[in-house]
Amino acid sequence: MSVTRTAPVQAATPKPATPKPAAGRAAATPLWWIWLAAWPVTAVFVLSNAATPLYVLWQRDIGFSKGTLTVVFAFYIVGLIGSLLVSGVVSDRVGRKPVLLPALALGLAACLIFGTATSVAALIVARLFTGIAVGAVVSAGMAAVTDVAGPERKRIAALLASCAMVFGAGLGPLLAGVLSELAPAPTTTVFVVEAVVLAGAVLVVLRMPVRRPERRGQGGWVRVPGVPRGNSRQLALGIAVFAPGITATSFVLSLGPSLLSGLLGTTDRIVAGAMAFVMFLAATGVQFAVQKLRRRTILTAGAAATALSTVTLVVAVHTEAVAVLILAALLAGAGQGMGQLGGLSLLNAGIPPQRLAEANAALNVGGYLPAGLLPVSAGYLSDAVGLTSGTTVFAAVLLGLALLGGLVVLATRREVTDPA
Questions:
Q1: What residue segments make up the domains of the chain, in order of their start?
Q2: 294 bridge partner residues
Q3: For the domain 31-210+224-416, what is the CATH code?
Q4: What CA–CA distance (Å, rounded) separates 223 from 347?
Q5: pLDDT at 214
Q6: Where is this region: Disordered (predicted)?
């Protein structure tokens, strides 16, 4: 009889206690918290491009060339890449909040400097601060969305994080364009509004249900971000399509207003802001449209959209047609959106949580390097040979990169067969 009493007790004790709470936490997190966790990403990316329609005003008031304009834009890339060398590793080791809160503080400082800028140096500092904040957000912020979602909802986390990034990037120039035309203090009002948006993001981060990591990684704190052994091919596939896509959108952001005002004769800042907005609206919408397709299809379509955007861009500058330029912007947005979703979904599916922020940082380093270098080169080339010739050379180089990325994806099957 004693044996029969002890047997049930022994049968009940082996129940695993660890997996259940983890699954319970993931299921208990409301879906609205996943959306809210993406808000800091949106808030910082609103700042990232809010200055785009205002450069024409600063050029008129301060006085600088298109080459200098692209240098100001490039300092954003410098700050972003410098931030990515640190923020991904720090976020994976000490937590998301200790990285996100200083990033939002830098964003608030950038708003103050932008709103009072009277020199190229001030614009450079503001862009540098913005780049640092964005670097922290694309690594720690996007990983935080995945943490809040939990392991069972990685797909929706990748989709929302990616869409939060591109939607914020498009909303910034639209707000700036409208407010600079309709509100007083055209180069100040939008940054007051953005400061309020960032303050709201601070409150979200303070309440965000994420925990500090239990294990801390090894190696240096400042390093070129990477992925665990065995995941390098997924990273390379993401960069192959994401990099040309974001380079195309970066060109539209940095030189699009100059194309509209100088070459095409359109000086309305609302038009410049709206063009950037619809570009990133396309990047957002296309991700919802293709989310159930296989990653290989998404990445291939992204490369094709970027290639078509370069061809359309050349047609636009040679025919001086605003509508064709907007079509080029829409295709560029679609290319970035699909490349970004495909790359993030590959990383989310294969990278452990303790390395995810660093992997996100690695994807963005690979994307933003050409996005900084090629538009700057195009800006100085346009100063030397004219905007039409400079844009044509840029488009030809980017067309080659987009086609190469598409061929790389088509040649690889195993890593990109699953749905995004």
A1: 31-210+224-416
A2: 419
A3: 1.20.1250.20
A4: 19
A5: 64
A6: 1-23
Place of tokens 């990685």: 154
User: What are 78's two structure tokens?
Assistant: 């410098």
Length of the chain: 420
CA 325 to chain CA centroid, nearest Å: 22
**Biggest alpha carbon–alpha carbon distance for the chain:** 97
Rounded Cα distance between 360 and 101, Å, is 18
The burial class, CB within 10 Å (0-12 / 13-18 / 19+), for 213 is: middle
Distances (CA, A) of 226 to 75, 81, 285, 369: 23, 13, 29, 15
Q: What is the DSSP string of 341-384?
A: HHHHHHHHHHS-HHHHHHHHHHHHHHHHHHHHHHHHHHHHHHHH
Task: Tell me phi and psi for residue 268, to 5 degrees.
Answer: -70, 120
Amino acid at the residue 39? W
CA 138 and chain centroid, separation: 6
Q: Which amino acid is at 262?
A: G
User: What's the burial of 9, exposed, middle or buried (CB within 10 Å: 0-12/13-18/19+)?
Assistant: exposed
Alpha helices (runs of H) in 142-220, residue ranges in sequence order? 142-149, 154-182, 189-207
Q: What is the DSSP letter of 95?
A: -
Tell me how crowded residue 48 is: count the other CB atoms within 10 A of its CB. Answer: 25
Three-state DSSP at 340 gives: helix
132-152 average pLDDT score: 88
* Cβ atoms < 10 Å from Cβ of 367: 25
Tokens at residue 98, please? 């200790």
Q: Which of 304, 293, 294, 379 is nearest to 334 (CA)?
A: 304
